[in-house]
Amino acid sequence: GRWLDGAQAIAVAPNGDVVIGGATASPNAIATAGAHDETFDTVYRSYPDAFAARFTVTGVLRWGTYVGGLGEESGNAVTVTSDGSVVLVGQTTSVDSIATPESSWPQHRGGGDGFVSVFTEAGKRRWSAYLGDLCADVAATSDNRLVITGIAGASWGDLASVNTHQMWRAGKDDAFITVLTTSGTREWSTY
């Protein structure tokens, strides 16, 4: 795009496609027609949106999408599952346009929240959820479960599952690990 663009994460799909994620303040040259979010928020243009983009093995852009609402977003990590789905995690201040209603955590909890967004191989959003105060990294298991790590503060006191390593926060901000199914349902979480 024509403004600040920063790719902060990279992954290679099983078919050899290259996927990047990051943050952008560019209103053009990022999103492609038919992708999840084709429009950059120009109301608050000084706030960047997260983005994900998928390139073929020869460097041709297959699709690109913005991820964001009226607040500020950054894409911190990306992975590709064995079925070709693209997973982007990051942080947002947006209370709109991030989570899908059926997700495990559809409500913004204030300030900066982490997010996880899953896209089809063609760039359509499958689901998205808020998660913790910051999602720092993501990995996919061989059966496409998502393993996410990050930081959770006071507003995420209910993040951990029963009978896990650490069910309650121990400090102001705690690291967390969360495992989600392919549909975004929490299998387990621990601080």
Write the layout of secondary structure elements.
Layout (H helix, E strand, L loop, with lengths): L4 E8 L5 E7 L24 E7 L5 E7 L5 E8 L5 E7 L20 E7 L5 E6 L3 E7 L5 E7 L21 E7 L5 E5 L1
Antiparallel strand pairs: 1-2, 2-3, 3-4, 5-6, 6-7, 7-8, 9-10, 10-11, 11-12
Overall 3D shape: globular
In round numbers, the mean pLDDT is 90
Number of helices: 0
The beta-strand count equals 12
Distance between the termini: 38 Å
Which structural class best describes the helix and strand composition?
A: mainly beta
- Biggest sheet features: 4 strands, antiparallel
Radius of gyration: 16 Å
Strand order of the largest sheet: 1-2-3-4
The low-confidence parts are none
As a percent range, the share of helical residues equals: under 10%
Structural overview:
The protein is mostly beta strands. Helix content is 0%, strand content 43%. The protein has strands at 5-12, 18-24, 49-55, 61-67, 73-80, 86-92, 113-119, 125-130, 134-140, 146-152, 174-180, 186-190. The strands form 3 sheets. A 4-stranded antiparallel sheet has the order 1-2-3-4, with no helix packed on it. The mean pLDDT is 90.
Q: What are the key terms here?
A:
four-stranded antiparallel sheet, 191 residues
